[in-house]
Specification:
two-stranded antiparallel ribbon; mainly alpha; elongated
Length: about 100
């Protein structure tokens, strides 16, 4: 996308939000090239971890979230019925220690 402005996946269906984040990623990669934080020949190579942490990582995390939301199997596997309460986490091996403190 950063080079050609299009996604090469046949089943990809763009939304305004996904297009916006992809444009932001493309702009960040262009900035990375200008700042010599990214190299593009023969392929994209990160040259600055600081640039990645501050500019690319937040954008890529948002893009991954879009992708994860498209995975029906993932949503089904991690979904819980709305009427099912969320129980407190089990104390596991710390249970005897927390009981002794009471």
């Amino acid at each position: 996308f950063a080079q050609r402005g299009r996604i090469a996946l046949p089943l990809y269906k763009p939304t305004p939000a996904s297009t916006e984040i992809l444009e932001d990623i493309r702009e960040a990669m262009a900035l990375g090239r200008k700042l010599k934080a990214l190299q593009f020949i023969p392929h994209p190579v990160l040259l600055s971890m600081a640039f990645y942490q501050t500019k690319l990582k937040p954008l890529l995390a948002t893009w991954v979230l879009f992708w994860l939301r498209t995975l029906d199997d993932l949503q089904r596997d991690f979904a819980r019925p709305e009427d099912e309460p969320i129980d407190a986490a089990d104390d596991g091996p710390w249970k005897p220690l927390s009981s002794a403190a009471e």
